Amino acid sequence: MESAAGHAPSKKTAATLTAALRACADHAAQRDDLPAILNLSRQRDTPALLRFLTWSTAHHQAEATRLEKEARAAHPARRAAVAAWWTVARWFTASPDPVLLLLADFPGSLARTIDVKQ
């Protein structure tokens, strides 16, 4: 057992939940009409579950296709941005200009991030 956040319950909580679930299962297992209840449940829930799974599969495949197209379309721009970044980095390394370094120092900038990490 674990919580929705993935944490294990305390020993007392786990023991209480286990006891309650066992009592419910024992009570349900002793019912004479349990097979009929299970069959009716399957007949009612299975079509709805299949419709949901079919929709979910189609939706997520379409989403994956869309995201792949976006990634492919962004690839040239990403390559150009990386090349430009390295060009600027080499330029700053070769001849750093204090005025440009001051202009590049804004919240969220690479200069500010490096300064904070130092």
What does this structure look like?
This protein is an all-alpha fold and 118 residues long. Helices cover 80% and strands 0% of the residues. The chain has four helices and no strands. It has helices at 11-29, 34-94, 98-103, 110-117. It is elongated and about 85 Å long. The model has no long low-confidence stretch (mean pLDDT 81).
Q: Helices, strands, pairings?
A:
Blueprint: H1 11-29, H2 34-94, H3 98-103, H4 110-117
Observed structural traits:
118 residues
User: What structural category characterises the helix and strand content?
Assistant: mainly alpha
Proportion of beta-strand residues: under 5%
What is the string of helix and strand elements? Answer: HHHH
The number of strands is 0
Major sheet: none
- Quaternary class: single chain
Mean pLDDT: 81
Into which percent range does the helicity of residues fall? Answer: over 70%
Q: Compute the gyration radius: what is it?
A: 30 Å
* Shape estimate: elongated
Helix tally?
4
**Cα separation of the termini:** 43 Å
Q: Pick out the low-confidence regions.
A: none
